[in-house]
Every structure is written in structure tokens, then in C-alpha cells.
Amino acid sequence: MIRNQLLVCAGGACITSGEKSVKDVLVDELKKNGIEDEVQVIETGCMGACDLGPIVVVYPEGTFYQKVTVKNAGLIVNEHLVKGRTVSELLYTEPTSEKQARTSGDIPFYTRQVKRVLRNCGSIDPLSIEEYIARDGYFALGKALEMTPDDIIQVLVDSGLRGRGGAGFPTGLKWKATREATGSPKYVVCNGDEGDPGAFMDRSVLEGDPHSIIEAMAIAGYAIGAEQGYMYVRAEYPLAIERFEYAIGKAREYGFLGRNILNAGFNFDIEIRIGAGAFVCGEETALLRSIEGKRGMPSIKPPFPAQSGLWNKPTLINNVETYANIPQIITNGAEWFRSVGSAKSPGTKVFALAGMVQNTGLVEVPMGTTLRELVFDIGGGIPGGKKFKAAQTGGPSGGVITADYLDMPIDFDTVKEIGTIMGSGGLIVLDESSCMVDVAKFYLGFTVDESCGKCTPCREGTRQMYQMMERICDGKGHDGDIEKLTKLANVIRDTSLCGLGQSAPNPVLSTIRFYEDEYRAHIYEKKCPSHVCKHLLTYTVTSDKCVGCTACARQCPVHAITGEVKKIHLIDQSKCTKCGSCYEICRFGAIRKE
Amino acid sequence: MKSLEELKRIKEQTLKEMDLRQAKERGKVIIAMGTCGIAAGAKDTLMAIIEELEKADIHDVKVVQSGCMGLCDKEPTVEVSMKDQPAVIYGDVNDANARRIVREHVQGGNVVADLVIKRENI
Amino acid sequence: METRMLNVKINGRDYQVPDGTTILKAAREYAKIDVPTLCYLEGISEEGACAICVVEVKGARNLQRACVVKVSESMEVWTNTSRVREARKLNVELLLANHPKDCFTCEKSQICDLRELASELGVREVEFPRTRTELLPLDNTSLSLVRDPNKCVLCRRCVNVCAKVQSVYAIDIMGRGSNSTVSTFLDEGLGNVECVNCGQCLLVCPTGAITERSEIPDVWKALGNPDKVVVVETAPAVRVAIGEEFGMPDGTQATGKMAAALRSLGFDKVFDTDFSADLTIMEEGFELIGRIKNGGVLPLITSCSPGWVKFAETFFPKVLDHVSTCKSPQQMFGTVTKTYWAEKMGIDPRKIVVVSVMPCTAKKFEKERPEMKTAFHYWQEKLGLKDEEAFKDVDCVLTTREAAQMIREAGIDFTNLPDEDFDKPLGESTGAAVIFGATGGVMEAALRTAYEVLTKKSLAKLDFGDVRGLEGIKTADVDIDGTILKVAVANGLGNARVLMEQVQKGESPYHFIEIMCCPGGCLGGGGQPISDNPDIKQKRAEAIYKEDAGKPIRKSHENPEIKDIYKDFLGEPNSEKAHHLLHTEYCDRSCK
Predict the structure, then answer these.
(1) CB neighbours (10 Å) of residue C25?
(2) CB 3.0–4.6 Å: which of A295, C63, C299, C462 could bond C54 by disulfide?
(3) Residue C10: CB partners within 8 Å, gap ≥ 6?
(4) Where are the alpha helices (DSSP H) in A160-297?
(5) Distances in Å between the alpha carbon of A574 and those of A300, A539, A557, A577, A582?
(6) Which of A278, A451, A461 lies closest to C94 in CB terms?
(7) Percent of chain C's residues with pLDDT above 90
(8) Domain A129-338 - what CATH class?
């Protein structure tokens, strides 16, 4: 008889942090204590608090253990399970109150979230279709098959669900258009390419709750009249591919995919298609070309995929997170969906909180949550006592939200007014030590690499912009560069063929708008105020701290430092290559970096 | 899978297996599992309580362990803390007594007076 | 069903435009506004890559591409706001930033679309530096074409023509983003892949990225060598197009001026490939009759288009025994000149340099084929020549453009030259030969001869209208005095592929198929003047048929010089001597 269950987070991040070895230790210790038949060890999907992994939660207590290693995993068995003593060293300490949290219910990171898309992630074994069913899985499909396709689409329209991939197009309208399009056969496609650096919402859903997507795609197939679905996953997600493949197998076994599903005379099946390392294949038309076996390059819209998609047939293509909302909307209705969020952006949004913030990981909150709540209440604020500077949103397609807008509610439309987008949910927190010019350059470098190369403005224009940013960060900026960057950025936005090019200049435009002074410092003063841009740093010896140990002089690869033993040393600026070795090696803090 | 009935059956069956993870609203049963408790047979007490709750089909009451409660000569000790009711500590809870406590207090709502450790007795 | 008319506003004025029209067409045809384009090629390349044709559309967030966006009811379009003009200029500047600045020496500078665009849009400075620091190597591997990827603006016209029109797929975009280039499989080079040398890519390239391999220096050298007897032969399609190079109206018959100009350049003899076209008809016509009578392999397929021949060898080696063993007129001419004519005139064949002026780039490849040394083999025993002394039947091939360039270099005033005739012999030709230049021409010429030979009756109507015209595939049932001959004519390799798949499956219902590699036939060949008149092929075809109609002799077998060459030299069509000299063989170039 099972008296305890150990839920071990097996999301991608925790696995990389050694979850498998931790799990092996737990299993071993249970055996050693002879309680392996009383205690079940279950691997779940991502629990969200990725910074705290590996995570083990003991039920029924709900005790939340974080940063479990192979050295201390045994304590969970020997102390908690055998002796009933909570292992306090593994509990989470809330940084501001410094209180220890016993369960996730004591951790604001969790309590402030509204888990709808992520409701099963971290609570069920993703490989168990039975556990999915126990959580009302596949009941929505059953209900949908008893509705008419038009009614299903009406529920979606009423719910106001908007595409979670970033564009925010009303999902109900998309389904309607695909249903009404002429052509046969029709297709259902799920966009699991998730190319934004730092975004892993879709990956966690695919790894942690794959059946929710299978169910949603089946509902979609029924609604639009398709019998074949394709799940397009980027090749960099092997765990998601593995688990989704397994889930498809299980779904077929249980009759949720295949012929005559639930005796409703409805056939539907799903195949996986794997990407090959191109960010541009996250763009819907490029993705469809990729599935067709062609070069992944965007094509002009119209025609839209709803009218002419895969092999020129009507195709419904939605993002993973969008699909994840579908079964619950069918089960609970449009009003329920609208009960959280904002009027024009109802529902929840999963954000990937990362960067200089205490609690990094996945958080799901109602649309309209302010940036302050996300960064401070849920994110736990900025570590090291540093000050919040800005949040970069939307990956390489987005700009920044500055401290002045901390109380701005975040949804599809609000952030557009200040020149950024919510995008797919990437949220990188930046503190005072970040150089905004460098951040913009980083994202631009990404888009330059990933541009498909078809249209002139994106192919040539973004590279020109990037080289300008490089010059500026190297201290070779000219008067007029800001104007030139802005002009070029506007034409690239105005004339690029697809969303990649149209949004590529956003990080630069946004940082120029809010941090023009940093650009000016780089260009005119040849200085980087945040001390990030290597070529603009100056290393000097602080005379009152230098003891003349000669360590720096010996370390310097270009012999730029001169000085005798026990005498103050001097760095020859004309020779200095700004490598920073002297700074690293000085034990007396006598090298100043500015 | 051909019908909603089949689906419901799987759901109910699996929920039972996932029982331990569900939120328990109605109450909590704590068994002291310190060294003294274990020596006095608290393990059997624990298993008996879990079994009885299963038999009675009760899924909204949590069963947890704690360390030594301090009432070492009355081990095994069990605390029953039902929602909106004062917590009650029972002593000498062997297998048979454990089952009584489940049936009479948890299920029936009546405190098992003769097993209660009165404050005055400490 | 009538097409709906939509109300559209362009630059503030109202127009009624049929539903389904693009903004570009609407502007050009209705509002008489020429929205500039670069990568757009109607029906072939419509990808919206260059971002030059952008226009403002009311209600649209971004600028829209006029070449692909269709008009809608009440659409308001602005084609020349400052936002539009700035965007177009900036995109051109971005292309110019990485473009070589050698317009003074670039051979395409006079007709370069990019240069013209920059000029039209008023680009006065290029604010942007080069981003591509390394120069890409030239592709010199082909005998016909040279590619300079540094001048490529990635408009994708060449890729689309090679894929969609010719179905060869020899080139595609390699790499991604700003590392994209147009290249061949594993960068092997055009000479090492399936490229058939047709030059259609050259015709559509808007810059100097694709040019022909120039033989002008070789020809000047030969002309300047007093020891050589330099003769020139000209293809039928050249004479109706060369005038364009000198500003004459499209479709001018410039035969007389062409002969005069070539003579003025210093050629010892100016002959006419049309002579050997008649010869080809004799050989091929009798080959057809022979196969029909003796149960030979049918359908018989023509072989005068070297681009088509390489296509067959690469993609359809199994149909090679259908292909006529006749050489092309160019090659027959070279052989005949260095054997029959050399003997007749008492000239040492080693002194003869045969130059041909062709509308074709593939002919440069054809003359280098190892089997094309027939004259040498004819003379080897007679003169005791060693293998190393082998010489080609045709020494140099000039495209129409190259010939015009030489005429310009020589300062000859082409348009004002008085007409002159070709030299005799080997200068007499019939109307049947001249129509070789148009698609369906070989078929028609062959039918004129085959009919009379088979029926021994005179053909009343010489025009076989069914096989004329620019459609991709034309078919006809020809009544040869009771026997129905089923014929098909295809131009453009995409259409050839359709017919060949039938032949390969054994399902072809035809007796005789004419294949021309280039759309429109030779008059649309890769060596022709580059024109921006969409009706240019129509015009050149009209000129060719006019020339045919005006010829006193219009059937190949009635050409007196042809009668002479058989009487004096070859014997009969398909005789053993004719076979040795005028027929050839093919090889399997497919991937094993």
C-alpha cells in the first residue's frame, strides 16, 4: 500500500542538473530501508522553478525540496520518510522574509500563479495516459465530439483566446476561416519550433503534458474537418520529441487517435516532424514548407495557411500554448476562460522568467499582470541588492520595458504602445550592470544569423545594422550613427517579407528610444556606462591599493604592465588589449575597471 | 476506448492511485514517527490508518508523519486535526485502536474519548 | 463568367480594375505608372524578394509588394510618397553596398537592370559599406557560361527559370541569410553538373552575374592571322535579332546588313548555316522515312538543339536511340566546309577556321564535343596526320551579342550598310532552312521534304500552321496522302520533359517529335540580344516566317547547292559517306 509519493521534476533543466542520478539515489535508499513498496517515485514534467532544480516534492505532505543533489537525496528517505523529520537544509528560503517554505503553498513564486496551461506540469507523470485521464484528460474530446464543429468554433470565438505564439491573432477566427476554406484534405499543424532564445514554455508543455496537445489537435481536426495532424518540433528538443512520440503511441493504444475515435465516426492521427536548426522555420509559412521537405523560407501572405497551407490545402496552424488552452475551454466554457486576464487579452500567459532575477523559471499568470508583480512578487526581485533596469520581452522580436513602466499590465496590446511586444513569453530581467547597447546587439546578431536571406531589407539591412552596432561597441561609432540606425531600422520594418525581418530592428529601436544616452556615451565618449563593452573599458592601477606584487605584469599577455617589486605598477594604455586578465588576478583589488 | 463510460472508469481508478497528491481539505492525521514511536509500532499504526481510510473511501484527509511529539510513553501517538474542529491527540494507538479512530472520529465525527490523552494527564 | 470589376484608387485617381489583378499590373496598365521592379518576372519569378516594388496601401501597416498583392475593392494605393521612395532607394543602396563598382568594365553595363534602377530612383550615394569582405570565386567551369556571384543580387530569377521553365534544376540558393549564394550542387560549378548550357539564366539575370564565355579574342586572333582562311556561318535566328543590338526595330530582317558587316570584319567567306540546315533536313527527312518504312525506332526526335541533347543524355538516356543521329546544322557545316569545300577549293583544311554566329550558348559546348572532329578523321589517312594534330569541325562560336560587339569594336555603321549576299557555294538556302530559327520550324521543313519524297507529289500548301506558334507543346496529325503522320513540337525543356516521360514509358503516340531547348525555339536562345519587350519572340518569329515566305525556293530538296553536294560528294542521303561525315553519337550522362 502506497503511503507516500515522491514527485521528482524531470523537466529538461532538472535533468541537466542531475535529476536521473538523484532519482537513482532515492530508489536505492528506499530499497535499503525496505520501503520501496510503500513509496512511489514518479517523474513529472517541469515544475517551473527551474533555478531551484532538481526538485523533489513529497506527498501527501506537499513538502517542497529544492536543489537536491546525490549527496543529500538520501536524507529525504532516511530523515523524512523513515523518521518523519523534515530536511530543513533542502527547504526553500524566501529571500526577503528569510522564512523557510514547507510546501509550494508557502512560496510566492507558486502561489501567485494561475496554472491552466501548466496545470498538469509537475503534478503528473507525463508518460502516464491514465494520470492525464484522471485529471479530466480526453473528456473534452468526448464532449467536443458530441458538439457540432460550428458550436466548438463559437465557444473559441466567445472565449477570446488569442494565439500564444506571439502574433495574438484570435484563435476562433483562424479556426473558422480554416473550416470555411475550400479544399481537401485539410491539415492541423502544431508549431513547436519555439525559436526565441530563452523561451521554453512550449518545451515544458510537450515534455510535461503531451496529451493535452494531442487532445487539442484532435478537437481541432474535428472542428475544421481534418484527419491528419503534424506536430513540428525543433530538433533541439529531443526529450520533448521522445515523450510526445510515446504519448502518441499511448493515445493510439487507447483509441484517442486512429479510426472512429470514441465511436463518433471521426478519424484523426498525428505525426511528428522534426526541424533542423532554423529559427525562421517558426514562421508559419516557412514551417509548412519545411514539412513539405522544401527549404524553410517564408512566402507571401495572402494566401494564408487557412486557405492554402500544406501542399496548398487549407491548414490550421497554432502554437503549443494556444492548443494547451483548448481542452479546458471546451470543458469549462468561454466564460470560465474570460474570468481571468484582461478584456481584450483574456486567459493566462506562460512567461519564461530569466536573467537577473531571483527566481528563474516558468510562471503562468493572468494576462494583465504587471511587470512589477512578475519581477518582484513572483520573481523575487533582483539578486545581490542590485536595481531593476529593464525587462526585455518577446525575444529577438521585442524591445524593452523600463522601470518607468513597471506598473504596466502586460498583455498583447499594452506593450505595443511603448514599442515592444509580449511575444511568446520570453522575459529577460536586466539590472544596472547590463549594457542596453550590448543587449540590442546580441539580439540583432541572432536575427542576422537566422535570416533566411530571401528579401533584400532583412538579408542586407540587418547585417548593416549589426556591423554598425559592432562599430559602436568597439568605440568606432560616428556622429550620425543613431540617425542612420533608426532610418535603416524603419525601412527594414516596413519592407521585410516576413515577421522575422519586420521585428528584427525592435531591440535596437526600443533601446534607442529609452537609452539614447547609453548610445551617445558609446559613440561620442567612447565609454560603456555599464562596463560591459570590452573595447571601451579602461583598466588602470589604483595607486593606494597596489602593493607591487607583480602578479598582473606577469599575467599580461601583451606585456603592457610595467613596475618593480613593491612599487606601484603602471598599465600602458596604448598596448592594453582589454583582456581583463590583470583584473582577474589581482588579489588586492588594485585594478580599476571602468 | 470507445465510450465516455470507459473514460470515467479509468479516471476514477487512477485518481485513487494519485490520491496522495490531491489537496486534502477536510483534515489531517499525523502519526509521530520518531524513534520511540517506531519502536512502539507506529509503522503498523500508519499502515492501519491508511488502509481504513481506503476502505471507508475517504480521500480528503491527509496522512502525514512527524517526528517525536514528546509523548514518548504513550507511543504510538496520533493527532487528528479535522477542519473547523480542535485537534485531538490520541495515545496507545495500536493497529486496532487506529482503525477505531478512523471509523469513529474521522468518519463518524465523534472523538474516541477513551484513547484521548487528556492535558491533565501529562 | 464575367470577371468582377473593382473600384481602386491609385495616387488619388479612380480606376476600374478586374478582380485578380496585381497592384503592379493595375498601376502599369490602367494608371500608366511604371512601378519599378527588380526580381519580378511574370509567371516565372514572383517571390517578392527585392522589396523594390513596394507601395503604400491605405490601412496596411507596412508597405506592400505591388508585384504579388492583388487589388481589392476600394483599395487606395500610393506609389510615390516619400516613405515609398525612401524605402526603394534604401533597398537599392543595400544591394549596391556589396556590388562590385566596376560598371566601366562590366560587359553588361549597358543593359544592367540594377544600374538602370539606381539611375531611375535617383540614388546619388551609397551610405553603406561592404559587409561581405571576401570576394567569391568566379565559376569558370562551363564551356558556355561564366558566373560571377559577386554581382548577384539574389533575385532568384535564374533559379526559377532553370527549375520551372527548363526543369533542369542545376542551380539553387546555397547557404542562409547574408551567406546565401546561387550555386550548383556542392559548388561543383556549372560545367560539372546537369547544366545544359542553354543560357536562359543569362537572359533573365538583371546584372552582370551571368555572362557567356567570350570567344571574341580567339576570333580577332584568327582574323588577324594571314595564314588562316576564316569563314563564318550564321544561324537563321541571328539575322532577325542582330538588328536589335544596333537600335533597329524589333523583328527587323537584317540579313543583308549582317552579311555585309561580317564581311567588313574581315572574314574570308561569309556563309549561311541555313545551307546546312537544308542538308540536315535531307539527312533527317530520309532518316524518318527510313525508320517508318523499315520499322525503326519511333518516334524520331530531332537533334539540332545541343541543350536538348545534353538534357536527354542527362535525364532521359533511355530515349537516346530515338534521337536522330544527324548532327546539328552548325556541326554539319563545319564538317562540310573542311571536307567538301576544302577539296573543291584546294585549301589545306588545317588552314581553315570555321566561326559560327549563333543565338545559342550551348553551341559553345557542342563544338567541343570529342566526336565533333569528323573532318580530321576524314583527312587523317589522306594526309597522314597524327592524333595530336586533331582539329575541331567548328573552331569558334560567337553569340549574336558577341558578333554585334565585334561589329561595334570595328566601328562598323551597321544600320547604314547596304545589303550584301552570302558567298557561294554554301550560301544558298531555302525558306525551309530559315524557319529552323522558330519552334516548329524543323518540323515544318522536314514535313515539306518528307511529304514530297513519300508521296512523290508536289505539296500545294507549304505552311503547316499547326506547328507554328509559341505554345509549349503543339501536336498535329499530318495527312501524307492517306497516311497519318502524328507529330509533336515542344519548346522549353519543361515541355520536353513531358513528352519524354511519355516516350520513356513507351506510351508516345507520335512518329516525329521536334524538341527545342529554349522557349520559342532558337529565336529565344541564350545568345540572343537581351530584350525587355515581352513580345520580342513573337516579333522575331514573324520576321522568320516572312523571310521564308519571300524565298524563291522553300523546300530543302529543291536547293540546287544541296543537289550538287549529293551529286558530287555525298552520293545519297544517309549514304555511308553521309553517315561518317554528317551523323554523330551520344553518351549517357545520367547519375549512375
Answers:
(1) 18
(2) C63
(3) C26, C27, C30, C31, C33, C77, C78, C79
(4) 171-180, 201-208, 210-224, 238-253, 284-291
(5) 53, 11, 14, 8, 16
(6) A461
(7) 78
(8) alpha beta
Q: Compare all CA atoms of chain A with the CA of C49 and give the residue at the minimum distance.
A: A455
Are the beta carbons of C54 and A494 separated by less than 8 Å? yes
Is C363 part of the annotated catalytic residue set? Answer: yes
Q: Is some CB atom of chain B closer than 8 A to the CB atom of A408?
A: no
pLDDT digit string, tens, across residues A420-431: 999 999 999 999
Please tell me the predicted confidence (pLDDT) of residue B120: 46
* CATH class label, A537-593: alpha beta
Domains present along chain C, CATH in parentheses: 5-80 (3.10.20.740), 130-211 (3.30.70.20), 216-582 (3.40.50.1780)
What pLDDT band is residue C1 in, cutting at 50, 70 and 90? low
Residue A454 is nearest to which of C49, C87, C179, comparing CB atoms?
C49
Instruction: Clarify whether C486 is annotated catalytic.
Output: no
Show which of residues 239-268 on chain A sit within 8 Å of chain B, judged by CB atoms. 254-256, 262-263
The residue-averaged pLDDT of A415-420 equals 89
pLDDT band at residue C592 under the 50/70/90 scheme? low
Q: What CATH number belongs to A436-524?
A: 1.20.1440.230
Identify the residue among C37, C123, C178, C182 best suited for mutation to test binding to A, counting A beta carbons within 10 A and taking the highest: C178
pLDDT confidence of residue C323: 96
With an 8 Å Cβ cutoff, is A138 touching chain B? yes
As annotated, the residues of chain A forming the CATH 3.40.50.11540 domain(s) are 129-338
| Cα–Cα dist A184/B109, whole Å | 64
Is a pLDDT exceeding 90 seen at residue A322? yes
Confidence tier at A50 by pLDDT (50, 70, 90): confident
Q: Which one of the listed residues C366, C402, C444, C547 is annotated catalytic?
A: C366
Q: Is C287 a catalytic residue?
A: yes
What is the tens place of the pLDDT at every residue in A52-64?
Answer: 889 999 988 889 9
* Mean pLDDT score of chain B: 83
**Nearest CA to A400 among A357, A366, A429?**
A429
Q: Torsion over CA of A15, A21, A26 and A28, rounded to 10 degrees?
A: 150
Asked whether residue A130 carries a pLDDT value surpassing 60, the answer given is yes
Of the partner residues A59, A84, A256, the one whose CB lies closest to the CB of residue B21: A59
Cβ separation A460–C49 shorter than 8 A: no
Q: Which CATH superfamily is domain A4-108 in?
A: Glutaredoxin (3.40.30.10)
Q: What's the predicted TM-score (pTM) here?
A: 0.86
Pairing state of beta strands A269-274 and A226-233? parallel
Residue scoring higher pLDDT (A85 or C21): C21
Closest by Cα among A90, A95, A55 to A377: A95
**According to the 3-state scheme, what is the secondary structure of C270-335?**
EEEHHHHHHHHHHHHHHHHHHHHHCCCCCCEECCCCHHHHHHHHHHCHHHCCCECCECCHHHHHHH
Q: Which of C245, C287, C313, C402 is catalytic?
A: C287
Q: Do strands A591-593 and B27-32 pair parallel, antiparallel, or not at all (unpaired)?
A: unpaired
Tens digits of per-residue pLDDT, A541-555? Answer: 888 888 888 888 888
Please name the member of C50, C62, C131 whose beta carbon is closest to the beta carbon of A456. C50
